[in-house]
Amino acid sequence: MRAPSPAFRRYLLLELPGWVVAATAVWALVEYAGLDARFGAGLVALWVAKDFVLYPWLRHAYEPGDPHPSATLAGRRARVTTRLDPGGYVQLGSERWRAELAAGGSADAGEEVVVLEIEGLTLKVERAG
After folding, report:
1. pTM over cut 0.85
2. Helix, strand or coil for residue 94?
3. What pLDDT score does 64 carry?
4. Listed residues 41, 62, 83: the one ending a domain
5. Neighbour count for residue 57 (Cβ, 10 Å)
């Protein structure tokens, strides 16, 4: 038998608290509101089954990916908004970022740069060539 994938284990661990809350709520309904215990058990089983049915559509969100944020920004082009000498600001999509030229030097407003990496909240960029 194969071991479950890391994405499936992560999914189960994140769904577990919801199952506990659902089971606790149903237990309270059985105990204090007179809900039939078999009906309550069926409700909890349906709640858990719902999560297993939805997993194939949600699997990609739980798969391990590149945890470093620069992975999604590296290679993107930005426009210099305030002179980089070597630091300043660039427009990347709809966002304004603090940026520094990786190799030093300067770049004037309006020039295009390419993102190399991100350090904290500062983009390390180079002139687009």
Report:
1. no
2. coil
3. 77
4. 62
5. 8
Domains contained in the chain, number: 2
Alpha helices in 34-122 (DSSP H): 37-62, 70-73
> pLDDT (tens digit, 9 = 90+) per residue, 41-91?
999 999 999 999 999 999 888 887 766 666 788 899 999 999 999 899 999
Give every CB contact of residue 38 below 8 A, 6+ residues apart in sequence. Answer: none
Here the tokens at position 94 are: 């709809």
Enter the tokens of residue 40: 């309550």
Residue 16 lies in a domain: yes
Both 57 and 74 in a single domain?
Answer: no
| DSSP code, position 68 | S
Question: What is the distance between the alpha carbons of residues 128 and 9, in angstroms, rounded to a whole number?
Answer: 42
**Domain span holding position 119:** 70-127
